Amino acid sequence: MSESVNPQLRPEMAKLPTYKAGKKVAPVNGLTAYKLSSNEVAHSPLPSVVAAIVDAANEINRYPDPFTTNLIQALSDKFAVPAEQIATGTGSVGVCQQIIQSVAGAGDEVIYAWRSFEAYPIIATIAGAVSVQVPLTNNGQHDLAAMLNAITSRTRAIFVCTPNNPTGGIVTQQEIDEFLEKVPENILVVIDEAYVEFNRDENAIDGIATLKAHSNVGVLRTFSKAYGLAGLRVGYFIGPKNIADAVRKTAVPFGVSNIAQVAAVASLEHEAELFKRVEEVIAERTWFESELTKLGFKLPPSQANFVWIPLGERTEEFALRSEGIAVSIRPFPGEGVRISIGERQALERVIELAGEFVF
Ligand SMILES: *Cc1c(COP(=O)(O)O)cnc(C)c1O
Fold first, then answer.
1. Whole-angstrom distance, CA of residue 227 vs CA of residue 234
2. CATH code assigned to 17-39+272-354
3. Which of 38, 117, 161 to mutate to test the pocket of ligand 1 (most atoms within 8 A of CB)?
4. What is the pTM of this model?
C-alpha cells in the first residue's frame, strides 16, 4: 500500500500555535454555567443597537461599504483625527494582522511583552516574521527598558498592550514618552488599547494624544470589549497615514459586514449608556480585587475588565476545580488565571474557590 502524501505547508505552520479561545463550561448539578474566560461584557446588547442590526439585516443581499465610510467618519469626529489616519478591520485582531503584514516580512522582527496578548505570536508567525518576546517584570508590568534593548536593524514593529492582557497593568504616559524618545522613528509603535475604557489610572497612556504627537505611533482599538460587540468583529487603527493606507490594502475585501458597521456607529451614538455599564464593571472589579486581597492574594492591580491571579504551579488545578463550579476561567498553565469581570454569582463562586488556594 502506498503511503498517502499531503500537500506541502509553509515551514512556519509547524510552529504556529492555535489560538485558545475561552471555553464554555457545562452546567453542574443545576448550577448555572458562566463564562469568565474571554473578557466579554456580560450585559446583553442595547435594544437601540439591536434595532439598528435588525434594520441592516434587510440589506444582506448587498456587499457592505468596503471603505466603512460612516464608521470612519464617526471615529474621525470622536477623536478629532483626519479620516485618512483611520482604518478598520474584522476585530482589532484582524487589524493587528493587517498591520503586521504591512510592515514585517520574512525574518523581520516584531517586539512585544510576554506574557501578553496571545494573538501577537500567531500573527507574527503567519507573516513569516520573528517574535521578540520581552518578559514582563515580576509584577506583570511592561519592561520598556528591556524592550528598547531588544531593538535591532530588523525591528519593524513594537506592540505595547495597555492595559495588558492577561495581567491587567498599564504603561504610564511618562514611561511611554521616555520610550518613544529613544525608539527610531522608522519603527512603528502600536499601542493596543483594547481595554482602555476600563482604565481609571490617570497616569496611564493617552493613546490618542500620543499618536498625535509622534509620526510613528498608532493605536489599536476594538468594539468587542466595552462596546459589547465581540460577536460582530469590528476594530480599528488610528495612526500614521501610510500605515492606515497599508491596513486598508491588506484587509480582506468587504470583511467588516454592514451589520457590524451599523452596530458600531449605533454604539458610538449610545456610548453614554454603554459607559454606565463600564462603570458597573469597574465597581465589580474593585470589589472582586478587594475580596481576593482580603483572602491574602497579592494581585497586580487591574485596569481592565479582568483580574489576574498569579497561581503558578496551582493554575491547572484551579482551572479544573472551576469547571466543578460551572465557571469557565482562562488558565495560563504554570503562570496564573485570568478571570473576566462578569456576573456577580460567578465571581462569588470564584472567590469561594480561591479561598482554598491561598498559600
Ligand atoms: C480582546 C483583545 C483585542 C480585541 O480583539 P477583537 O479582535 O477586536 O475582538 C485586541 N487586543 C487585545 C489585547 C485583546 O485582549
1. 10
2. 3.90.1150.10
3. 117
4. 0.96
Instruction: Tell me, in angstroms, the distance from the centre of ligand 1 to residue 75's CA.
Output: 18
pLDDT (tens digit per residue) in 27-63: 888 899 999 999 999 999 999 999 999 999 999 999 9
Instruction: Give the residue, by CA position, lying nearest to ligand 1 atom 12.
Output: 194
Q: Where in the chain are the domains?
A: 17-39+272-354, 47-269
Distance in Å, CA 1 to ligand 1 centroid? 48
Q: Give me the CATH code for the 47-269 domain, please.
A: 3.40.640.10
Q: CB of 340 closer than 6 A to ligand 1?
A: no
